[in-house]
Amino acid sequence: MRMADLSSVSLQVVPAGKQPWSLAQRSAAVGRNGAKLLGVGFGASMFGVTITNVLLEVRHSVGEMPASAL
Q1: Which domain range does residue 60 map to?
Q2: How many domains in the chain?
Q3: Rounded to whole angstroms, how far apart are CA atoms 52 and 7?
Q4: What pLDDT shows up at residue 55?
Q5: Alpha-carbon separation of residue 4 from 8, 21, 37, 52, 59 (angstroms)
Q6: DSSP-assigned letters across all residues of 18-35
Q7: Is 6 domain-assigned?
Q8: CA distance linking residue 38 with residue 28, whole number of Å
Q9: Is 26 domain-assigned?
Q10: Do residues 8 and 28 make contact, with C-beta atoms less than 8 angstroms apart?
Q11: Does 63 fall in a domain?
């Protein structure tokens, strides 16, 4: 099964002139799109945690926050 053979959305209507997608192809489309969402969500959360930690360190180094708050 090639990635080009998969539908972009599992509930997508079959375009005219194409063969219908099988259940396996529709399931693979769900898995592929889920993996994309997992990757983007994980990357965004790691970016957010990094930015938060950097801002906390900057605030601590400026002296506006007691060391016990970290």
Answers
A1: 46-70
A2: 1
A3: 38
A4: 93
A5: 9, 12, 19, 39, 49
A6: SPPPPHHHHHHHHHHHHH
A7: no
A8: 15
A9: no
A10: no
A11: yes
Instruction: Kindly report the pTM of this predicted structure.
Output: 0.66
**Residue 55 resides in a domain:** yes
Q: Quote the tokens at residue 13.
A: 């209507």
- What is the chain's pLDDT, residue by residue, as a tens digit (70 residues)? 676 667 777 777 888 888 888 888 888 888 989 999 999 999 999 999 999 999 989 988 888 666 566 5
Structure tokens belonging to residue 46: 């790691």
Which positions ≥6 away from 9 have C-beta within 8 Å? 29, 33
Distance in angstroms (rounded) separating the CA atoms of residues 67 and 29 = 49
